[in-house]
Structure formats: structure tokens, C-alpha cells
Amino acid sequence: MKSLLYHNNGLKIYILNPDIPQEWFKNVNQQLSSIGDNIIDLKVDQSGFGDSQISFSNRLNTMTFNKLLLPRLLPEEKVLYLDSDVIINHSITALLNLDFSEPLAAVKDLNSPDSEINAGVVYFNNPVINQHPKIVDQLLPASKQPGLKNADQSVLSNFFYHQAKFLPRTYNYEVGVEGYAVYHHIDRIISELARISDPVIIHFDSDDKPWNLLSTVRYRELWWYYNGMSIRDIIDHVTLGTNKPRWSKLRGPLFCLTNSQDFSHLTELVTTLSDYQFEIAARTSMGPKLVSLLKYPNVRLYQGILPQVMADRLNCAKAYLDVNQGMKDTKVIRQFLESGKPVLAFNNTMSMAGND
After folding, report:
1. How far apart are CA 336 and CA 60, in angstroms?
2. Where on the tree of life does the source sit, at the highest rank (predicted)?
3. Which of these, 82, 144, 242, 334, has the minimum number of CB atoms within 10 Å of its CB?
4. Residue 132: left if φ>0, alpha if ψ -120 to 50, beta else—which one?
5. What is the C-alpha to C-alpha distance for residues 48 and 67, in angstroms, rounded to an integer?
6. Are 45 and 69 in contact (CB under 8 A)?
């Protein structure tokens, strides 16, 4: 919600929930009143869903099915539904002003583009949907049918895929799918994601959420940037045009790709050079020795790092730390040297000539 408010103002935002206290809404609305936003408490009754979520993964619960009821729940003609695992990185005014006559507008799902929309961002055209009340009546019972591939997404797709207006992928950039696509070598998905460099709506649609202890997903830092905002930051941005500093003021970063938990003097480096950002990456899971480094605020761990993330971090790095023990990725180190940036090592960790 913070990212939405930061880039857009004068909004009416309904929060579907079963249990957020009334006081929270009062406090937030009091603070946002100066910029014209209104956050509305929309309580939903979960009992009507019964056991409709049993056949799906643990990350799904009945809350995700509530979007099926929006044409009946809300009086507005058009309603933009956003999953709770998205961030808004630009103005969505163009999307909100979209004129369309279809029942809904959405982006094709990356995994099933020929049969499903992705239900993380759905623009409902309520008057058109409500012209067919029998369809609305059928949505909730359909969610309880066995064999649904993707829960509420499959329900909406079964009813509306062939009547939908398809939106550009920038309005639902499924970055969460990237790890799956890389692991399974699905070049079509990798290429489609690579075509967009600055998406409007970023969707973390996998279990690899940016708020996990260790996650491989891109845009993790961006999620935490918005998470760390205060309401005051949002108001100042809207009224004064000020921007909350996006990136760390630490120097560096200093990057290392490792296949081992064993390092030479890494803790001493981290504590002595506390004004530098240390980025430690691995293509695999990380063990407890590396995870324990998270107690230092200038350490960032990249577990199971994805190729595009590693390319970005290597490009940003001011120096490469060749200080890990065990096998090295000499190709990565050599390419870093050839870029003209220094590779720093101890005598007992140096992997090739030319290191400083």
C-alpha cells in the first residue's frame, strides 16, 4: 500500500480483511487526509468459502478468493484489484483511466499464457460483469470444485479468459516466476521478463518472497525500500516532491561468489570496514556460518543467486573479494578483472595472478 500511495494520490483504497482493527484505519486516514487518500475497511466473512482452499499450496488461503466477490461487494463501476505481494513502482494513472468494455482486464499468466490470466492484478468492469448475475452467482461455488490448477485464478480464467482485455506485462511483472524459469530452463519466460527493464507493477508471485530471511527474487531491495517508508515520507513526496533516499549510503559494494562457508578474515573485514557494503552470493543454499553474518547491517546475502541478479550485483560492485576458501568460479573473477575493477585477495585465497 505504501508504494501505491507514494506514486499515486487521491485514491479510494478498499482493504479486504477479516480482522484489522478499526483504530488502524482511523490513524492512517487521519495522516493521509492532507493528500486526499481514503483507506476503507472492507471486512469479509470467510465462512462462506468452507474448505475451498484445501487442494492448494500452503501459501494460499481463503482471503485470495475474495476477489471473486468484488463485483457484488463494491459500488464502484471499475475496481482495480491488487494482490498483497505486489509493489507499485510508478504512477498507475494510465491504467486507472483505461477505457474498456470487456468484463475485466488483466495480464496473461506467464506459465499458462494461452489459457489463464494472472489474478494478482485484475481490473474489474463491474457493470459489465453484473449484467450477467448468474455468472457472479457461479464464481464462488466454482472455487470449491476439485482439480483447479491455480485456485481463484483458474476460476476467473475459466469464466473470463476469452472475454478479457489483455494488459501489457508491465502492469503485472511476475518476477516471482523467474527463479522457476531459470531452474527449469524455460527460455520463453526468461526472455519475456528480460524485455521489461522498469515495470510499473512488480508481482512476487512465488513462495520466494522478498520478506523471507533469504530470498533470491529480484527487486527484494525495492520491496524493503517501500516497506521502510513512513506516512510522512509519502506525504512529503506528494506535497513537496521530496524523495526518500533509495539506496544505502554505505560505500562499495564489495562482492564475492562462494561455493563454501569458509572464508579468510571475513568477519574482521566486515567489522573493520563497517562503512562498506559486503555482498556474499552463492548458487546454492547457505549454511549457518554464512547466515550468522546477517547480524552485521553491512552484509547482504544472496542465496541461490539468479543469473540476472548476479550480473547486476557484479556491475554495481566496486571490487571483488577473492577471500573464500575452496573451489572458485575463475570465469567470473577473470571477467571482473577484465572489466578494469580490482579483485582483492589474501595470499592464501588468491585464485589467479593479477589479484591485488
Report:
1. 42
2. Bacteria
3. 242
4. beta
5. 13
6. no
Q: Give the model confidence (pLDDT) of 235-269 as tens digits.
A: 999 999 888 777 678 999 999 999 999 999 999 99
Architecture category of domain 2-233 in CATH: Alpha-Beta Complex (3.90)
| Residue 251 and residue 323 in contact, taking contact as beta carbons nearer than 8 Å | no
Longest dimension (CA), the chain: 75
CA 352 from centre of chain: 38
Neighbours of 269 (CB within 10 A): 18
In the prediction, which pLDDT does 52 show? 45
Superfamily (CATH) of domain 251-345: NAD(P)-binding Rossmann-like Domain (3.40.50.720)
Q: Which whole-number Å values give the CA distances from 12 to 37, 80, 221, in the listed order?
A: 6, 11, 27
* Three-state secondary structure readout of the chain: CHHHHHHCCCCEEEEEECCCCHHHHHHHHHHHHHHCCEEEEEECCHHHHCCCCCCCCCCCCHHHHHHHHHHHHCCCCEEEEECCCEEECCCCHHHHCCCCCCCEEEEECCCCCCCCEEEEEEEEEHHHHHCCHHHHHHHHHHCCCCCCCCHHHHHHHHHHHHHCEECCHHHCEEHHHHHHHHHCCCHHHHHHHHCCCCCCEEECCCCCCCCCCCCCCCCHHHHHHHHCCCHHHHHHHHHHCCCCCCCCCCEEEEEEECCCCCECCHHHHHHHCCCEEEEEECCCCCCHHHHHHHHCCCEEEECCCCHHHHHHHHHHCCEEEECECCCCCHHHHHHHHHCCCCEEECCCCCCCCCCC
Q: What is the pLDDT of residue 356?
A: 59
Residue ranges matching CATH 3.90.550.10 in the chain: 2-233
**Which residue ranges in the chain fall short of pLDDT 50?**
52-60
What are the residue ranges of CATH 3.40.50.720 in the chain?
251-345
